Amino acid sequence: MDKQKVLEKAIQKALDNGWQTGWEEAVESFEYSTADDEHYVQMQPYIRFNLEGDGEWSIGIFGLMYRHEFAQALWPKHDWKTRDDGLCGSCGVGFGYAASSGSECWKEHLQQMVIADDPIEYLAANMPT
Ligand SMILES: [Zn+2]
User: Fold this and answer.
1) 55: buried, middle or exposed (CB in 10 Å: 19+, 13-18, 0-12)?
2) Is residue 18 part of a domain?
3) Does residue 72 form part of some domain?
4) Could you say which of 7, 15, 23, 104 has the lowest number of CB atoms within 10 Å?
5) How far is ligand 1, taken at its centre, from the CA of residue 100, in Å?
6) 120 near 3, Cβ under 8 Å?
7) CA of 21 to the centre of ligand 1 (A)
8) 38 vs 63: which has the higher pLDDT
9) CA 82–ligand 1 middle distance (angstroms)
10) Rounded to whole angstroms, how far apart are CA atoms 76 and 84?
11) Could you say which of 19, 45, 65 is where a domain stops?
């Protein structure tokens, strides 16, 4: 899956799970862009969100991926089920310590994604189905 497809899938999933941009207006559509834009030149590639009405909001892909609210929506809270190998039976991540039921795996995913050599590859491999 290419970078653009991974991000589009992740964004759609987060939106489906109730994530919002932080603006009052709902997201009508979004697009991945590498286009030159004088306002966003420092954050290519970026995602441009078209909001209800005439609004729009753009954010660099890493700025978006590393938002706590975004990660929380992407990996919704689920019950921790310890497997024999100590990892979460629901999503397959571990915290490096004994977790209890209700632990928040999104935090672990976010940390791992931030330090991954290729955060988008991490995202692609660990996106909930
Ligand atoms: Zn989990």
Assistant:
1) middle
2) yes
3) no
4) 23
5) 11
6) yes
7) 24
8) 63
9) 9
10) 23
11) 65
**For range 60-77, the mean pLDDT:** 92
pLDDT at 38: 67
How many Å lie between the centroid of ligand 1 and the Cα of residue 113?
15
CA–centroid distance, residue 105 to ligand 1 (Å): 5
Residues 88 and 109: their CA atoms lie apart, in Å, by 12
pLDDT at 86: 79
pLDDT of residue 51: 97
Same domain, 56 and 82: no
CA of 35 to the centre of ligand 1 (A): 36
Of 23-27, 31-35, 98-102, least confident by mean pLDDT is 98-102
CA of 106 to the centre of ligand 1 (A): 8
* 86 and 58 in a common domain: no
Q: Domain range for residue 9?
A: 3-65
CA atoms within 13 A on the CB side of 66: 11
Provide the pLDDT confidence category of residue 97 given band limits of 50, 70 and 90.
low
Rounded average pLDDT over 78-99: 77
Cα-to-centroid distance, 54 and ligand 1 (Å): 38
Ion ligand 1 — residues with CB under 5 Å? 88, 90-91, 105
